[in-house]
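Aggregate trends can hide what the representation actually does to any particular protein. The sequence in question and its structure tokens are set out directly beneath this paragraph.
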Amino acid sequence: MRIVRTAQRATESRHATFKTSQFLRQVATYIVGVGLCCLLPIVGRAQTFGCSPAMANDIVCENSKTGTPESTWAISGDGDSSIQGFATDISVNRGQTISFKIKTNASAYHLDIYRLGYYGGNGARQIATVNPSASLPQNQPACLTNSATHLYDCGNWGVSASWAVPSNATSGIYFADAIRTDTGGTSQIVFIVRNDSSQSDVLYQTSDSSWQAYNAYGGNSLYGTTASIWDAANQRH
């Protein structure tokens, strides 16, 4: 989905616009490679995360589970323009709560939470379903703008829903499918679940700064704007 950009707010995350389904497929392909390299046991680090017998680590364990078919969770491009939103943080530690700010005229919708992974080639597994905490339809205020910098800041939106990440959740890239009940229109919100206590030989770092640079929500990005002088100057940074 078009992840709404928020800037100059310490409590809001850096967000980005990208073709979500294509991105998720590319990341899932990468995770397959990481998962395969992790199949070799790491002496002294074997842990059980819902698998019996125990596997080499929790990533291998999680990716061995049955996934959700891509036909269920994938969307086209930015998703449905009538339901768009973002997570209030780009990442949270497991055991913490992630909140979502969503703009839609729908009187009913829900969020299906997924984790990216191999999952037998399905690419993702549904973890939970979350209902909005806000009264619907929720009236979000107009995003803040700055004509000089083309800033489009939607951090003034109210929280629409939250998910308490389980304390034993497997770290990785997660996303929420925001699904309208009436039309089935769907958009996606990407976020990261960390395991700050983990010590691993492999680290996957997401490119949220690059996502932000391509974020065109509101009409402008660092690579596409009607203000060509501002655009050229900022592309150099």
The chain is about 20% helix and 25% strand. Residues 1-19, 29-49, 226-231 have pLDDT under 50 and may be disordered. The beta strands are 83-87, 91-93, 97-104, 109-116, 124-130, 144-146, 151-153, 161-164, 172-180, 186-194.
